[in-house]
């Protein structure tokens, strides 16, 4: 018996023509299902910006530094606690912000650079990422930048901006024409850049304000939702970066200063939650909210110590901005889902790569402490 | 005419068929999408765990209520292939969600199902383990997709060409007995 006969099993009295037709139909259904998967997976639209292409973009510009984050690559772990004031308890049902709650915190301060060995520079964006573990396995993770607004509104614009900053192989510097073209295509980024350039650059990590930039929603026990943005505002009065700091020889001076500070005494930030009003832009991180919006002082972050990135600490955590507890929900900001997807891709790549020590040591090997 | 699968088995089969197809589509769509990633992955976790629970129920049910026998005239290699593919389907319906759960545990993500409901980790935190399990999740998911397609083609072959009651035993549609001379051999 031929293979075809074995498969069709004599075809239960169908004519050969009917058998062929039916076999074709089965092939068509199976092929259509397979194409359905291919379509859903985006393989039929290869030009689309995917998480993989986004992270490839970072690698194209910065090179690959195995084991390190594809952005905010240079960092240091921090630890401390969060002391809730209870002032935001009416706005969100998250237990962390109930009155009197104190929770241990781990986190990471970093510079928004794609290479782990870039020298510290005053103008580089600083970041603070936090991870709070609540009862019953819930967590709140947040990554905040020392900026008043974000430079871009969409993930596609972010991708264009990274590539526009790619050093030209001939000069070793980004091609100014590409950056000009980027800004010409993105007037919202021109407006954001004006606000960003006007910011006060403070003396270090210890007196920087770190902002969520993206909007979220606080969900109260009764389901009421409030659009919010939050920021960690230092209790210490910020000091503008002095001219003397600009020429510091220690390539890790910002990190080493923070280490030295925290060895002396804890540092404190207030979690300031800004409440949006109807009509405030929640889907555009380039736009500030009006300055008269009500703010709530939800509690105090107390940082008590630092540790160099290493196995099992902040190095191995993805500070995904959409790891949220019940009571805090994403807004319609397109950057949020894109960040979650891109960070996952970055995390997956670096998790599987061999690790090497961060150039940021604890205690420092160079600089003030020696 | 073949006897039918009992009604609970048929209901479980078709419910899980829809869920698994949806999960495969959600899975490949989410890893390729910046805009929909969060929405899709938030559905992917609870649906995957639902599949795990349903698969365990289904396996337990099947042990008490064995499947109707395949037609006697089915060549041995098809019998073996059918059996092997069914074993693989069960293994993947249980193994794939477990790998998903384990990989998120190793990566130290909270495994949020919905609202405040979070599953406990089932694997120690380890980036190396995460990377390996994440790769395995993809391989197993594509394997499942391939077996699902094979299963679909074979089911249609039984229903449209062989017309031996095998497809009907799961759809529950009573087919008129066809006039094949060896019909008497079939059960
Ligand atoms: C679509 C836009 C964005 C993309 C593609 C992007 C990309 C990335 C990537 C790939 C990482 C490394 C993640 C890891 O491996 O763990 C990262 C880290 C980070 N990003 Fe973004 N980012 C975006 C927007 C933002 C925005 C709007 C903020 C605003 C606050 C932000 C703040 C941070 C912070 C604080 C970190 C460091 C977290 C840590 O220390 O682990 N990013 N970003
Ligand atoms: C029958 C159940 C499941 C099926 C069919 C399935 C299918 C898939 C598929 C097709 C992918 C994309 C793979 C790739 O292209 O790399 C994927 C990724 C993923 N799955 Fe599943 N999955 C299942 C269960 C689960 C469960 C139970 C969890 C977690 C609790 C889970 C978590 C994930 C995550 C986190 C990703 C990748 C996200 C990323 O890389 O950013 N899956 N899954």
From TrEMBL, chain A:
Active site, per annotation: 72
Keywords noted in UniProt: Heme, Iron, Metal-binding, Oxidoreductase, Peroxidase
Any one GO cellular component localisation term in the record: cytoplasm
Ligand binding (heme): 343
EC number, as in UniProt: 1.11.1.-
Residue ranges occupied by any Catalase core domain in the UniProt entry: 30-369
One GO MF term: heme binding
EC category: oxidoreductase
PROSITE patterns attached to this UniProt entry: CATALASE_3
Region spans: Disordered: 328-370
Pfam family, one: Catalase
GO BP, one annotated term: hydrogen peroxide catabolic process
Cofactor dependence: heme
Recorded superkingdom: Bacteria
Cited function: Has an organic peroxide-dependent peroxidase activity.
The family this protein is said to belong to: Belongs to the catalase family.
Protein name per UniProt: Catalase-related peroxidase
Organism of derivation: Salinarimonas soli
């Amino acid at each position: 018996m031929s293979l075809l006969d074995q498969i069709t099993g004599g075809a239960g009295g169908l004519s050969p023509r009917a058998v062929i037709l039916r076999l074709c139909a089965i092939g068509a259904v199976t092929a259509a299902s397979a194409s359905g998967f291919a379509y859903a997976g985006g393989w039929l639209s290869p030009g689309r910006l995917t998480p993989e292409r986004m992270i490839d973009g970072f690698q194209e510009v910065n090179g690959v530094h195995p084991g390190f984050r594809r952005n905010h690559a240079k960092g240091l772990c921090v630890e401390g606690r969060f002391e809730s004031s209870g002032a935001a308890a009416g706005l969100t049902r998250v237990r962390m912000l109930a009155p009197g709650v104190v929770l241990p915190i781990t986190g990471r301060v970093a510079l928004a650079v794609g290479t782990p060995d870039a020298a510290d520079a005053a103008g580089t964006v600083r970041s603070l990422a936090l991870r709070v573990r609540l009862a019953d396995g819930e967590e709140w993770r947040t990554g905040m930048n020392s900026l008043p607004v974000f430079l871009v509104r969409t993930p596609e614009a972010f991708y264009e901006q990274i590539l526009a900053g790619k050093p030209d192989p001939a000069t070793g510097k980004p091609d100014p024409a590409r950056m000009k073209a980027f800004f010409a295509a993105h007037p919202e980024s021109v407006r954001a850049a004006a606000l960003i350039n006007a910011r006060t650059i403070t003396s270090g990590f210890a007196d920087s304000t770190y902002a969520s930039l993206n909007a979220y929603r606080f969900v109260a026990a009764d389901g009421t939702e409030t659009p919010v943005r939050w920021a960690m505002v230092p209790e210490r009065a910020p000091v503008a970066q002095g001219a003397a700091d600009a020429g510091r020889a220690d390539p890790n001076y910002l990190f080493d200063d923070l280490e030295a500070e925290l060895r002396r005494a804890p540092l404190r930030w207030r979690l300031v939650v800004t409440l949006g009003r109807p009509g405030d832009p929640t889907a555009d991180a380039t736009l500030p909210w009006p300055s008269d919006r009500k703010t709530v002082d939800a509690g105090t972050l107390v940082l008590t110590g630092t540790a160099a990135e290493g196995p099992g600490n902040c190095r191995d955590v993805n500070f995904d901005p959409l790891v949220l507890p019940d009571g805090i929900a994403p807004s319609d900001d397109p950057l949020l889902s894109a960040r979650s997807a891109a960070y996952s891709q970055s995390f997956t790549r670096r998790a599987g790569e061999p690790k090497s020590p961060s150039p940021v040591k604890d205690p420092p090997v160079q600089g003030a402490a020696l | 005419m073949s006897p039918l699968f009992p009604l609970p088995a048929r209901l479980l089969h078709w419910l899980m068929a829809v869920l698994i197809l949806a999960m495969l589509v959600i899975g490949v769509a989410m890893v390729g999408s910046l805009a929909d990633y969060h929405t899709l992955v938030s559905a992917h976790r609870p649906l995957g765990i639902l599949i795990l629970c349903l698969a365990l129920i289904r396996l337990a049910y099947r042990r008490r209520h064995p499947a109707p026998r395949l037609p006697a005239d089915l060549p041995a290699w098809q019998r073996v292939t059918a059996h092997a593919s069914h074993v693989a389907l069960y293994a993947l319906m249980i193994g794939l969600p477990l790998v998903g759960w384990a990989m998120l545990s190793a990566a130290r993500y909270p495994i949020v199902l919905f609202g405040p409901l979070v599953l406990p980790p089932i694997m120690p935190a380890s980036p190396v383990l995460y990377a390996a399990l994440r790769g395995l999740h993809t391989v197993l998911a594509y394997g499942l997709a391939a077996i699902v397609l094979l299963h679909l083609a074979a089911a249609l072959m039984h229903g449209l060409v062989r017309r031996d009651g095998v497809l009907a035993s799961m759809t529950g549609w009573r087919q008129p007995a066809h006039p094949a001379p060896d019909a008497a051999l079939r059960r």
